[in-house]
Input
Amino acid sequence: MKRISTCVLLCLIVADGATAARSRIGRSVEGRPIHVREFGEPSSNHKVLVVGCIHGNECAGKAVIRTLRRMHLPADLHLWLVDDFNPDGSTAGTRQNSRGIDLNRNFSYQWRGGGEPGDTYYPGPRPFSEPESRAVRDFVVEHRPDITIWYHQQMSLVVKMPKHRAVQRRYARLVDLPLKDIGKLHGTATRWQNHRFPGHISFVVELPGGAMSSRSARRHARAVLEVGRML
Output
């Protein structure tokens, strides 16, 4: 497995008998670890990052992550799975991290300041001010996933991005959600990734509100595996 700098590696055995690596790639403001689990061969031509939660009160996507951990990967697919990039917010049940910052407005591309800690979209005092968003940045810069899928709630749609729309369109069809443009938001993880690595695609899947059923989680997990080899 490719070395992940400054990470603590633990070997885990998953349901189908394959070995996965769990790596700590950062810590939250309050010191909670942020882990990524890695599946498949690092030499694979298709590399996908899937994030279950970045807003602490929008974490239904964790069910997709749990399902993916139990699935057999198709050939030539390398998968990174992150349960939660905002463990402090998830623990508190808040959208923001423990400093009252919306992590999905804390990225540098078209960042815009304003507001106060605790405001719904407060972007922080400067781009990448938070250890959680720096953990995302450093991981993506080092590993450069071809496709990144971020789960949010509660709009029930796939957010349309300007490039590689075939990937987004296929995902939306597989899970029976509309593909919609919701406008240009400032300082988001997806727009930073797409600007920094234009050959790749990062997009948001807005799940319905509430908990996700096992059936729905399996449907989304299968969609991840199908679109994962499209680039």
